[in-house]
Amino acid sequence: MQSASAAELWETSIAQVMPNPPGFTPQSLNWASGTRQLTSDPSPQHTADPFGNLGVPGVFSDDVFNSCEEHDLDWIFQNITEDDEMNFNGVTADRSVHECFDPALKFGETPLNAQQPASTYQENDANKESWLLDGATPPERPLAFPRLGGERVDQLSLGSHCQLERLTEADRKQVQQFIKLSLERPLWKSITMECFPSKEKLDHCIDLFFINWRPAVNFIHRPTFNPNSTPEILVLAIASIGARFTRLSGAAQFATTLAEVVRRLSLSAVERDPDITKTEPYLTAQLLLGVYGYCSGDKTLFNYSESLRSSLVRHARNIGLFSPHRATRPIENNTQAQWAAWINAERRKRLGWAIYEFDASVSFLHNRRPTMSVGDILLSLPEDAARWEATSAHAWMALVPQRSTLDDAINFRIAARSCFDTKLAITIELQDPQHLHLIVITLARFLWSVKELQASPLMDVVPEQWPLVAHKINLLHALDHYSVPLSTLRGISDDKELARQVERTSIIHICHLYGANDLMDWLPALLRTSGLNKAAKERMKIWGEEDPVRLRKVAYHSAQVMAISRDFPFNGPYEPFHVFYAGAALWCVASLLAEPQEDEVHHDDQRPIFLDRHATAGDVHHLRMLKWIQEGGNNAVVGIYGVPVLGSRSSRMQALEETIRILQNMRSWDLSTAFVNVLRQLLNAESAYE
User: Fold this and answer.
1) pTM of the model as a whole
2) Which segments carry the region annotation Disordered (predicted)?
């Protein structure tokens, strides 16, 4: 793992989350282009149009390349074969940041451990941020080599500094042939369109997308969505995800094929018109493709999502998507025009938050550093979801609080500080599930950054004693504040509310695994080798002996994730990740816990402690569980559903079998199948060892 620079070290600390200085003016956007881009406002005379028309070529480009990066987790696809051919076969706007500035924290009174983010000093005009490449864009022209030197150049006059072998004329011709074949031959094979679905089936896929796709921050405005006026690339991205939820035969294969089409169309479109990366439909389609790629079970799409993540963040940052939007036209004083302007600004803000979430989530999903800095976010938190889902202008207006203006929003940086600042916590009461989710994602990202600092080669030699362990404990305590017990989840009747709380609580439990020292660094190495990595196996034994309380806490949080995924499945794209990591950690714990000594079992302790039981805080079972976590005991019988006695000889295989069973029930996303294959290999290795 690479060590971070000094600036990056301080950027990742929680003390970095500071309000912006007074006098800050968010950057405005003014892209001069015939294509409707993120800066365009809806016409006051018309109703809100979800997206402008975007002309995406219907054929694939011949001269584009695939810039996929290898991803650390792509080994889970080692048993999946790839098919080179693609066939459809029978299958208000935000307030400015300084308005929310905390007067108790003046710019000149910033603590030594904190500093303002670089985004504070951005140019107001986004175009000025690309000053290194200022100048007119040359018109498109056929690619041709310019003449290099004169027609006759004496080889001897050029000289030779090194005694190297010289190219022969045959070598030169071979290079020429390589260039011509690589750039003139079609990059992809032709696509068979014979079985492309009917419009009724495509409509069905789009409909199921809006019913089943439940992101914590919704960024596609369903009430004004019109597939006839939406760019084709976005319609296809939506349909590919919606197809995952159909019960039609061949749905999974069709969805992945359609996602691959979106990937190729995206590469082709950018090669033909680089300005397409400045448009909202393109960024939205890429975000959907990125999430799909991580969860589809397709190796090509999986690796593409990682490279896509960095480019998506870069494009969004370059056009100011993480800064407040300023309307470029006056808004008429009527409900319809105000609704249209609000949708335009809110959709843009939500897209920025969705990209931030997509990037930050890799910290606890893939154990990787996010691309963007938290300091880049100058947005307020999203508006009420009910207003976002209002089906008409008057329905929207009826939901506008009478006590406030249309642009009354919560500043993100102030909200993040309220997690640790008791004075701010009194004035800012976070209740919106969207806001809670974004705060949890941010705290999880900070937790990973602290973990990264601990792995730095300088941590044990620098003169300063940074309290990193204390920082991790504080972050985990703050995260626990937003967790919901299993007993409470069972009492929630509203599916939308339950889905949000289930996802948030699962993320928090997974964060405890990342907070358990270097558990999530050596555990994937063990899984990758079916438990045969000697260095990782030795580290596992040492890790288990270092802190028995930590070991039992990992058992508890893993069991909680297993229970949540078993009892409250919502077919979320990231659910397989949670189960896989929790099950693997439980297998590790079962290997390290001592087997209960039955001859020493006392009468009061004969009742087993179930770590995944829906216990209410304060009841007898809950108190016994807390006592076991803190004190342990050789005579305690601890288990979960499917694993009666953790620490017994058979508990390791039982933990894997229960994890496999839960993953097999997650049938919407094929990533669960890839995880099952990995665990089966580990199970076979365990059986052979027994």
Assistant:
1) 0.81
2) 19-54
